[in-house]
Amino acid sequence: SAVISQKPSRDICQRGTSLTIQCQVDSQVTMMFWYRQQPGQSLTLIATANQGSEATYESGFVIDKFPISRPNLTFSTLTVSNMSPEDSSIYLCSVEDVTATNEKLFFGSGTQLSVL
Amino acid sequence: GENVEQHPSTLSVQEGDSAVIKCTYSDSASNYFPWYKQELGKRPQLIIDIRSNVGEKKDQRIAVTLNKTAKHFSLHITETQPEDSAVYFCAASREAAGNKLTFGGGTRVLVKP
Predict the structure, then answer these.
(1) How confident is the model at residue B96 (pLDDT cuts 50, 70, 90)?
(2) What distance in Å separates residue B87's CA from the closest CA in chain A?
(3) Who contacts B54 (Cβ-Cβ below 8 Å, separation ≥6)?
(4) B49 — contact with chain A (CB < 8 Å)?
(5) Contact B104 A42 (CB under 8 A)
(6) For chain B, what is the largest distance between any 2 Cα atoms, rounded to a whole number of angstroms?
(7) Which of B101, B102, B107, B108 to mutate to test the interface with A (most CBs of A within 10 A)?
(8) Phi, psi of B82 (to 5 degrees)
(9) Strands B107-112 and B86-92
(10) Averaged pLDDT for residues A28-44
(11) What digits encode the pLDDT tens for the residues B46-79?
């Protein structure tokens, strides 16, 4: 099964600044996604990270606020731009592993972001 | 788009009893329904999933049932143990849409010893 390394694991940031989260997978995967989990809430899909092209954003999320890069099939970054306290959440990278016998969608360990 | 409703939001059971969590979905084209368990401070992990060509699936103490006509599916945990305490999320997707999951709101399960 895919092993996903996500960093940083947590950060405390000042409002108005930006944070870039990295997601590294130990094998090539076609589909990579970024989710947000607000405190005590469910998971909401931010966007699909497309290799070699612009990410596909879900309703309510825009590229200017959450720019995403996907330079190859094993790596992606999510930037949270011009942060405000409302951006305090856990951000999760996930990948689809079609070679897995059981689990299909794997999650990284998440980045816990607190914005002051 | 897809909308997934999950009930109850919290569930407290005595150790050894059964726990049932129910979800409804809105998109009749959804055909993949996984359940994730998330322990405090940990990532969500898949515990069981079901596809729309199957009505029921069981794995030891965990079972999932699907009613396509009514567009609802349920998670059943039997003989609950304290280590079953966690937040459980149901989700739905169209597999042809690249497995973009829409999650339910979550159920916080507490198993009392």
Answers:
(1) low
(2) 10
(3) B66
(4) yes
(5) yes
(6) 43
(7) B101
(8) -55, -35
(9) antiparallel
(10) 92
(11) 899 998 887 899 999 999 999 999 999 999 999 9
